[in-house]
Design goal:
Helices cover about 70% and strands about 5% of the residues. By secondary structure, the protein is mainly α. It has one domain. Strands 2-1-3 form a 3-stranded antiparallel sheet. A hairpin with a 5-residue loop joins strand 1 and strand 2.
Length: about 270
């Protein structure tokens, strides 16, 4: 961070590589947070999208490799690790989801592993990849997709869409609307029920996305504060212990997102009489 104030250093590292249309009509990358905001809704955070796709492809490649090399007699370390994750997810889904769906368990497994990989990018030293991409003229580079609220909200919206789909499929459109209108206080309190249940329904994707984003963003900010405020020789004394503790946060937040997804889908499958 030579030549930079701590605040400038932190703001630079919190800036996404945003591509969109400038107010003057030209297309290009934003050079500041203000420029990114001026680009409007159609701007895209290229680094978030790229790292999400790269980690998704890595996830598919890694698990396919484990499947191809599967062995009952001599399981490798990768196979044992994946089997442990599978048993964790399968046990959690079995104890939480009471409906019948071939999608929920694979979805939970995919979400947990993908989010875990995205969260794990936070363990990489904060300057390593941004400085590497600077060699190729890339001014900004955020490598933890889950520190971008757009990514976490996008996943939460996909879960929300599944919630609505299964609610209508299992309960019928009339049953779904009746649940919003008549629960929890009966038909005589219909307006109040409708407001209460609608707010509760819309709060689910918001809480799902903001919980994951907030915890990972806070963790990244602490790493940046350590790097910005401490001399180089003193950084390991705080960054290493925080990284060890942060590993727990990384895994826990992936698990919480998965479990809330399963719980919400279970609620969508429950028919009240």
């Amino acid at each position: 961070m030579a030549g930079e104030s701590p605040s400038a250093y932190i703001l630079h590292h919190l800036q996404n590589l945003t591509y969109g249309r400038h107010p003057d009509g030209t297309w290009g990358f934003a050079h500041s947070a203000k420029e990114a905001t001026e680009m409007g809704f159609m701007a895209i955070n290229v680094d978030t999208m790229a790292w999400s796709i790269v980690l998704g492809v890595f996830f598919l490649w890694l698990f396919r490799r484990a499947a191809v090399n599967f062995s009952m007699d001599k399981p490798g370390k990768l196979q044992c690790a994946i089997e442990a994750i599978f048993e964790l997810v399968d046990g959690s889904v079995s104890s939480t989801f009471q409906g019948k769906s071939a999608l929920v368990a694979p979805l939970a497994f995919t979400l947990f592993c993908w989010i875990l990989l995205m969260n794990a990018m936070d363990i990489i030293p904060v300057d390593f990849l941004p400085e590497f991409f600077k060699l190729f003229g890339v001014e900004h580079m955020k490598v933890v997709p889950t520190t971008d609220v757009n990514a976490t909200f996008g996943m939460a919206l996909a879960v929300f869409a599944l919630m609505l789909f299964y609610s209508v499929k299992i309960k019928g459109l009339g049953g779904f609307v009746a649940e919003l209108a008549f629960h929890p206080f009966g038909k005589w309190m219909l307006p109040f029920n409708l407001v209460l249940e609608t707010v509760s329904l819309l709060a689910k994707p918001l809480s799902l996305s903001l919980r994951l984003w907030g915890n990972l963003f806070a963790g990244e900010l602490i790493f940046l504060l350590i790097a910005a405020l401490l001399p180089f020789w003193a950084e390991p004394f705080l960054s290493v212990p925080w990284a060890i503790f942060h590993i727990l946060v990384i895994a826990l937040q992936a698990y919480i997102f998965m479990m809330l997804t399963v719980a919400y889908l279970n609620m969508s499958h429950q028919v009240e009489h």
